[in-house]
Design a protein that fits this description.
Elements lengths: L16 H13 L6 H11 L1 H10 L9 H21 L46 H12 L3 E4 L6 H12 L9 H24 L14 H14 L4 E6 L4 H7 L5 H8 L17 E7 L2 E7 L9 H16 L7 E8 H6 L1 H9 L10 E7 L9 H4 L16 E5 L3 H18 L3 E6 L17 H7 L5 H11 L5 H16 L40 H13 L9 H14 L7 H14 L3 E6 L14 E2 L6 E2 L12 E5 L5 H13 L3 E6 L10 H8 L2 H5 L6 E5 L14 H7 L6 E3 L4 H13 L6 E5 L14 H4 L6 E2 L7 H5 L3 E5 L3 H11 L5 E6 L1 E3 L3 H8 L7 E9 L5 H4 L11 E6 L10 H16 L4
Parallel strand pairs: 2-4, 2-5, 5-6, 6-8, 7-8, 9-12, 9-13, 13-14, 14-16, 15-16, 18-19, 18-21, 21-22
Antiparallel strand pairs: 1-7, 3-4, 10-11, 15-20, 17-19
Helix pairs in contact: 1-4, 4-5, 7-9, 7-17, 7-18, 8-15, 11-22, 19-20, 21-26, 22-23, 29-32
Keywords: Glycolysis, Oxidoreductase, Thiamine pyrophosphate
Protein name: 2-oxoglutarate dehydrogenase E1 component
Pfam family, one: E1_dh
């Protein structure tokens, strides 16, 4: 601490009040017992400041006589900053919940009750207008911290952020400064929100709509974020939300024509897709703001509540990357949650955990919790969570939280203004807890008094938010009662006409041409397309040489990794066969040179779980990294590789969101082990497999799922292939199990070069990454393509094929086990055919190969998974239409777990099924 008069005395804000009071007491007893700089400070405090204070307050009151009382005032200020939100008037239901008496907010608690209220004190960093008397300080504290907004931010570790919030909030006593036109606009928004729900309630009696009644302030809140965001330079806003209030937001914020919504209620939409219920659908449009048009997107979302949060974040990141918006100044994400779901679902925590990480940062999301104070249909707060607030999980990332009374729309608007400004300044998440209620229960057919009689006695006695605000404005002369009624009539007329009810919609796009995504190029395209995925020898040589030559001379590479890179350079020259890591890396390098960005994320994916990839090199002496694929060509697209947070659900959802917004980027998520995808099954079921059929949302996401039974136990064997073949329908995805480096090379290039965007699920190997037979010659990269069916490599001439009596069809690792056992036993009458693509099933290609074997007597599908798992049950019907002999399955017996835990038992089973498939004694 400096001894200079101009020293920073920000410690007087109360954060250190207890320490200062103890130190001052020690100083009074023995000045020499404390540090000299503190002695100087307290001496100055006891001398000149008193004189100045006395001069200032001589006409208005007494001057404090004991400096310890100053410290108590600092503690009082501190208490309001820390605890004021507990006593704030944030609940429209009164004392039903969220309000408690806090002794620390009283003068008595701080031994200040006997101090005259006109005594002057130094308020420190507390912003107060006028004389800083004790009475004025207390009044300003209560106006700021215990009215309609409970500001919860003192848990933030960054002192600069706290100072900013204190200055922003305290300078205007936590209240907005709104003009009459602005207040009338709030009333207009509330009128639209209420009028929309009432109209639908009368017109479509008994139909579910998950209305916004009781939470209508969400509409002016969103309008504030959008219009003031536009003023501050935002150009795109992506919103993710569950179903409550969704139809209202679509109509009154995103300006979806009311007639389109009415048609959905009446079931008149003729879609070639399966479609979805109306309160799951998304929309996009362009909104006029004072700063120019803002492109709004409401993400499509199933009923799985919070899962849309990371999907929305991925879409935001894709748009920021496209714009090179490194500070998030142009693209904002808004995530709207329910209170029970926000507290109850783990994906919320997972998404927060990604918020400031390199690979998933979106420079701050504004979270809005529609706090109904009851979970789903009947759950009480005590059953919904173990925390005081549903928003307490946000403290894990030091996010400020503003609890605001939903029945005070001006307070809601103010909270939104502060939240937006904070996000723009600090590029961090912020939470708005909109404390409201549900007027009609969980849905319009629900009878809430069966389970919440006390709450709904209160609710049914309350006037609506719009009615209360209209009365307030009428009493203050801002709008007449007739004017308020005119707004109701005018909105009802617009709604009945079926047009756009928003007055701020744009007909032209707000996005420049170069920022548009041209999804129409990929609609209705066949999966079989004649494309060239080959690469010339000269190009391969040039690219692979750079993987080593471009490493800085002083960059110390791990010796084993350097050998891998040097071997890949030799593979690129044709000096040795290519392994899996070469084929995969070469695919990325060529796509980057072709202008496609590549984004690869997952646990350990930089190195590769099985140490095969090494896309990130680590300096062995310093904390430095080198990414060869970022330096693979003179002119190339962007390569991003991320060792993800330890999450499957949120990370996969994020990558799905990214891929749905960016068709020209190869987006890959890799599971550490294929089994781990189990933790993200909701993303697969409700987005990846069905997003196109429900919402017409194309997506080119690639999933790498390491798969293969190798004696590592039930939790490190199976990527649950059976689940994917069960979900496969309507050409919704590709399911591939490539078995050679050249196959994975052509497969990845096909994924981007084709004008076709569907999810690609790849069952990648583990042991095959280094298997001596799982190799490719350079010629296979120079010429060739991705073969959906691979014929037998040993039986090539016509006579030998006619001699074949048994055909084994298989996919994945078991092929090499079969091949080695056949060679070992010198079997010549059995062919082994690989199905490299299981969906869309390559029927014609398989028939073409089978025609080479006219004398087949036995056809077998061989899989190493148990018979009730793996591909068999999902593809066996594909063989029924063939004229040749019936296909039978050879596999492990049915099992509850994917694999045994004993290596000995695994080897015994594997040997038995391989020999059985080959017709050998077991």
């Amino acid at each position: 601490m400096s001894n200079q008069q101009g020293m920073d005395e920000s410690f007087l804000d109360g954060d250190h009040a207890v320490f200062l009071e103890q130190l001052y007491s020690q100083y009074q007893q023995d000045p020499n017992s404390i540090e000299p700089q503190w002695q100087a400070y307290f001496q100055r405090l006891d001398s000149s400041p008193v004189t100045g204070m006395a001069a200032m307050g001589s006409r208005n009151g007494k001057v404090m006589e004991h400096r310890s009382e100053q410290l108590r005032v600092s503690r009082l200020i501190n208490a309001y900053r820390y605890l004021g939100h507990f006593e704030a008037d944030t609940n429209p239901l009164g004392d039903y919940a969220y309000k408690t008496s806090v002794p620390q907010l009283t003068l008595e608690h701080h031994e200040l009750a006997n101090i005259p209220l006109d005594t002057l004190f130094d308020p420190g960093s507390f912003n107060i207008a006028g004389q800083p008397t004790l009475g004025n300080i207390l009044q300003a504290l209560r106006e700021t911290y215990v009215r309609a907004i409970g500001f919860e931010y003192m848990h933030i570790l960054d002192i600069q952020e706290k100072r900013w919030l204190q200055k922003r909030i305290e300078s205007d006593l936590g209240k907005p400064k709104l003009s009459h036109p602005q207040r009338r606009k709030i009333l207009e928004n509330l009128t639209a929100a209420e009028g929309f729900e009432q109209y639908l309630h009368r017109r479509y009696v008994g139909q579910k709509r998950f209305g916004l009644e009781g939470g209508e302030s969400l509409i002016p809140l969103l309008q504030t974020l959008i219009h003031e965001g536009g003023q501050q330079g935002l150009q795109e806003i992506v919103i993710g939300m569950a179903h409550r209030g969704r139809l209202n937001v679509l109509t009154n914020v995103l300006c979806k024509p009311a007639g389109d919504l009415f048609h959905e209620f009446e079931g008149k939409i003729d879609e070639s897709y399966t479609g979805d219920v109306k309160y799951h659908k998304g929309y996009s449009g362009d909104i006029s703001t004072p700063g120019g048009p803002v492109h709004l997107v409401l993400a499509f979302n199933p009923s799985h509540l919070e899962i849309v949060s990371p999907v929305m974040e991925g879409s935001v990141r894709a748009r920021q990357d496209r714009r090179q918006d490194k500070d998030g100044d142009q693209v904002l994400g808004i995530s709207i949650h329910g209170d029970a779901a926000f507290a109850g679902q783990g994906v919320v925590m997972e998404t927060f955990n990604m918020a400031q990480t390199r690979g998933y940062r979106t420079r701050g999301t504004i979270h809005i919790v529609i706090n109904n104070q009851v979970g789903f249909t009947t759950s009480t707060v005590s059953d919904s969570r173990s925390t005081y607030y549903p928003t307490d999980v946000a403290k894990m990332i030091n996010a400020p939280i503003f609890h605001v009374n939903g029945d005070d729309p001006e307070a809601v608007v103010y909270a939104a203004q502060v939240a937006l400004e904070y996000r723009q300044v600090f590029q961090k998440d912020v939470v708005l807890d909109l404390v409201c209620y549900r007027r009609l229960g969980h849905n319009e057919a629900d009878e809430p008094t069966m389970t919440q009689p006390v709450m709904y006695d209160i609710i049914r006695s309350l006037p609506t938010t719009r009615a209360k605000y209209a009365l307030k404005l009428a009493e203050e002369g801002v709008v007449s009662a007739g004017g308020a009624k005119g707004l109701v009539d005018a909105y009802r007329t617009k709604l009945a006409n079926g047009g756009i009810t928003c007055c701020n919609s744009q007909t032209r796009t707000g996005l420049p041409l170069e920022l548009l995504t041209h999804w129409k190029l990929y609609v209705g395209q066949p999966w079989r397309q004649e494309i060239d995925t080959t690469c010339s020898a000269e190009r391969i040589h040039a690219l692979t040489e750079r993987w080593v030559s471009k490493i800085p001379q002083d960059f110390v590479v791990h010796p084993r990794v350097l050998k891998v890179l040097e071997a890949r350079a030799a593979m690129g020259r044709g000096g040795q066969p290519a392994d899996w890591g070469f084929g995969e890396t070469l695919a990325y390098a060529t796509l980057l040179e072709d202008g496609f960005d590549v984004r690869l994320s997952g646990q350990d994916c930089g190195r590769g779980t099985f140490s095969h990839r090494h896309s990130v090199l680590h300096h062995q002496k310093r904390r430095e990294q080198w990414v060869p694929l970022q330096h693979t060509a003179d002119f190339q697209a962007k390569f991003t590789v991320i060792d993800s947070v330890l999450s499957e659900e949120a990370v996969l959802a994020f990558e799905y969101g990214y891929a749905t917004a960016e068709p020209e980027t190869l987006v890959i998520w890799e599971a550490q082990f294929g089994d781990f995808v189990n933790g993200a099954q909701v993303v697969i079921d409700q987005f990846i497999s069905s997003g196109e059929q429900k919402w017409q949302r194309l997506c080119g996401l690639v999933m790498f799922l390491p798969h293969g039974l190798e004696g590592q136990g039930p939790e490190h064997s199976s990527a649950r292939l059976e689940r994917f073949v069960q979900l496969a329908a309507q050409e919704n995805m590709h399911i591939c199990i490539p078995s050679t480096p050249a196959q994975v090379f052509h497969m990845l290039r096909r994924q981007m070069i084709r004008k076709y965007r569907k999810p690609l699920v790849v069952f990648t190997p583990k042991s095959l990454l280094r298997h001596p037979l799982a190799i490719s010659e350079l010629e296979e990269f120079i010429n060739g393509k991705f073969e959906v069916v691979l014929d037998d490599v040993d039986i090539t001439d016509v006579d030998a094929k006619e001699h074949v009596k048994r055909v084994i069809m298989c996919s994945g690792k078991v092929y090499y086990d079969l091949l080695e056992e056949r060679r070992k036993n010198a079997i010549t009458d059995t062919a082994i055919i690989r199905l490299e693509q299981l969906y869309p099933f390559p029927s014609q290609e398989l028939v073409d190969v089978m025609e080479y074997y006219p004398n087949v007597e036995a056809a077998i599908w061989c899989q190493e998974e148990p018979v009730n798992q793996g591909a068999w049950n999902g593809i066996k019907h594909r063989f029924e239409a063939y004229d040749y002999t019936e296909v039978v399955c050879v596999s492990r017996p049915a099992m509850a777990a994917p694999a045994v835990g004993s290596l000995y038992m695994h080897q015994h089973q594997q040997q038995a099924l391989v020999r059985e498939a080959l017709g050998l004694e077991t």
